[in-house]
Amino acid sequence: MPGSWLPWQRYNELLFIIDTCQGASMYERFYSPNLMALASSQVGEDSLSHQPDLAIGVHLMDKYTFYLLEFLEEVHPASQANMNDLVSVCAHRVSVSPGHHTDLFQRNPGSVLITDFFGSVRKVEITKDTINLTSSVKPSGSGDMQIESLTYVDQLPVAEIIHQKPKQKDWHPPDGFILGLWTLILLVFFQTYGIKHLKHIF
Q1: Which parts of the chain span the membrane according to its record (predicted)?
Q2: Which residue in 1, 67, 108, 194 has a CA-CA distance of 20 to 30 Å to 12?
Q3: Residues 17, 39: Cα–Cα separation, whole Å
C-alpha cells in the first residue's frame, strides 16, 4: 500500500474499523503511512454479539458496532470530539478488549477531530413521486432509436438445485478407524485370555 500513498497521493488518511473476532490481527501487518485502525477484539478474543432480535431469532449487530454507532450518532458537524474519544468509547462497555493502532498515523489522535473522518453531510431529498428509470437508448443505422431490452440474470439455478438428487458417495472408514478397531480387539482378547495366549493369534 505504500505505493498508493507515495508518490501518487491516492489517499490522505485512512481509518479502518474492524469488527470481527480477533480483529487486532488484521491491522498487525499494516505498514503504510497515515493509517489508523480500530478493532473490536484482541488476538485470541471473540467479538461479542449484541442483544438478538426475537422476531427473527438472530443477532443483528455486534456490541462494538452498536456502541460505536450510538456514540457517532451524537457527533454533529461542529463537534470537537477527537479520535481518542472514539477509541475509548467502547473500552468500558464491551466485555472484550478493543484494540487500536495509531503508530503509522502521523498526527496525534488527540488532535484529530472525529469529523475529519465522519464529517460528510449528504443532502437527501425525500419524494413520493414516481421516478422512471429509462433504459439505455442506442441509435441504429437507419436513424431510428433502438431501445436495449433489459433482462435479469438468475443469481442461483434454483430449479436445478430443487430437482437435483444428491450423489451417492462411497463409504470409507474415517481415519484411524481400522487402527482403533484392532486396538479394541486386542484389548478384549487380553482381558479375556491374558497375554500367554497371544502366540495363538500371530
Answers
A1: 176-195
A2: 67
A3: 6
Residue 94 belongs to what H/E stretch? none
Residues 87, 17, 60: CA angle, nearest 5 degrees: 105
**Residue 134 belongs to a domain:** no
The arithmetic mean of pLDDT across residues 5-14, rounded, is: 70
Rg (CA), the chain: 31
Q: What is the CATH number of the domain that holds 41?
A: 3.40.50.1460
Q: What is the pLDDT of residues 138-154, one digit of tens each?
A: 655 665 666 666 666 55
Residue 173 lies in a domain: no
* Within-domain flag for 85: yes
Q: What is the pTM of this model?
A: 0.53
Statement: residue 78 has pLDDT above 60: yes
φ and ψ at 75, to 5 degrees? -85, 125
- On the CB side of 24, CA atoms within 13 Å amount to 13
Task: Give the chain's domain count.
Answer: 1
